[in-house]
Amino acid sequence: MRNLLPHAGRSPAARSSRRRQKFALTLLTIAGIVFRSEIAILLASQTLYLYFRSYIRLPILSIIPAGLLGAFIGLALTVPIDSFFWQRWPLWPELTGFIYNIVEKQSSNWGTSPWHFYFTSALPRLLFNPFVYQICLPLALSVPILRRQALDILLPNILFLAVYSFQPHKEWRFIVYTIPPCLAVASAGASWIWTRRAKSFVYRVLSLTLIASTLASFVASMGMLTVSRLNYPGAEALNRLHALADNDTGIVKVHMDTLACMTGVTRFMERAPPALSDAQGAFWVYDKTEEEEKLLDPLFWEGFDYALAERPERVIGSWHVLSIVEGYAGIAIMRPEEGWEQAVEDVRTLQRLGLDSAWGEDALETARKWVSEISLGRLVSVVRKFGTKGWWVRMKMEPRIRILKRGRMLGSVEESESAPVEE
């Protein structure tokens, strides 16, 4: 982003600025070819801005070589490497994705959003702190000395958002590239407020609000992080399956449905083939088939030992539920009477632990006892009893993915979690 900032005129700084702009266009071209095809729209908006902005006027003879160089490097990297790993030649993954999502218009299968979604929902949520987009950004655009550079940073990114908004399927991750530029402009507005905090009462109040909103955003982000980690039952299910089937040998075949693959299952979690010296190791084979015709074929399911399924009734054959993985289902308010007896008992346990502690005689053993006895649940119980009078906020969980095993139950699985699933 810094390389795209222009310097007007024909000074050495301006010439250096043009070299950096060409370098930035080359890097954006490489990123669009190798990583994400939507970066091509951002590249186009940045290029048009650099070409048509009157005091910049990056020559077309500078733009074309930068693009060609980036295209050559990007294709030289992605085609051989991805073709090798996917065993298809030639393969350019981002072009394949572009054809599927844009040309064939298949991305709408994953849901659609209104045109204004990025501006009215995604961008404010990504910026998160309301002070950023309600005060800092408008201030940076309104102060004359800051306005030109603020526009040079923001306008190409706004153009990118406007063009990409015509794509019906929208997700925040498609526009994450616009967040650093927006925050850079907002930081200029924040700096303007902070450096003038001693000059007037208004700037002093805004400075205090800036600090408070930053701290509040940090606390809220930590809370959202706690919630978001519960949104990946697929990853939890695969890890749990590996633990349940740790003693299996031979070839172990697992089918993972769409929900599991969308909620944390990645290639990095798959178990590697056993070493040649390990005769007892299992060779895990993972399947992510989505074609409805195959999923309705009983012969297809006969080839699997395990399945991770959101809807076990769609898994054809005789299966047993080894375990159920829960996922986040919202926030609930706990009234004082809910779980109050357990909270009181937790507090009494900690009180007894305090009375039995002997820090002077055997401090190390006492510390170990405290670590083993204290849990987050017991600390919450203390807060509920002495701080909130029994009221609390808890996260609701609901069953999301079932871990299924073909045939008879594993002996190590509890009866309470095992239930047959018939065709």
Automatic annotation (TrEMBL):
The chain crosses the membrane at residues 23-44, 56-79, 174-194, 201-225. One of its GO terms (molecular function) is dol-P-Man:Man(7)GlcNAc(2)-PP-Dol alpha-1,6-mannosyltransferase activity. It is an enzyme of class 2 (transferase). It catalyses: an alpha-D-Man-(1->2)-alpha-D-Man-(1->2)-alpha-D-Man-(1->3)-[alpha-D-Man-(1->2)-alpha-D-Man-(1->3)-alpha-D-Man-(1->6)]-beta-D-Man-(1->4)-beta-D-GlcNAc-(1->4)-alpha-D-GlcNAc-diphospho-di-trans,poly-cis-dolichol + a di-trans,poly-cis-dolichyl beta-D-mannosyl phosphate = an alpha-D-Man-(1->2)-alpha-D-Man-(1->2)-alpha-D-Man-(1->3)-[alpha-D-Man-(1->2)-alpha-D-Man-(1->3)-[alpha-D-Man-(1->6)]-alpha-D-Man-(1->6)]-beta-D-Man-(1->4)-beta-D-GlcNAc-(1->4)-alpha-D-GlcNAc-diphospho-di-trans,poly-cis-dolichol + a di-trans,poly-cis-dolichyl phosphate + H(+). It is found in: Endoplasmic reticulum membrane. It is a multi-pass membrane protein. Mannosyltransferase that operates in the biosynthetic pathway of dolichol-linked oligosaccharides, the glycan precursors employed in protein asparagine (N)-glycosylation. The assembly of dolichol-linked oligosaccharides begins on the cytosolic side of the endoplasmic reticulum membrane and finishes in its lumen. The sequential addition of sugars to dolichol pyrophosphate produces dolichol-linked oligosaccharides containing fourteen sugars, including two GlcNAcs, nine mannoses and three glucoses. This is Mannosyltransferase. It comes from Imshaugia aleurites.
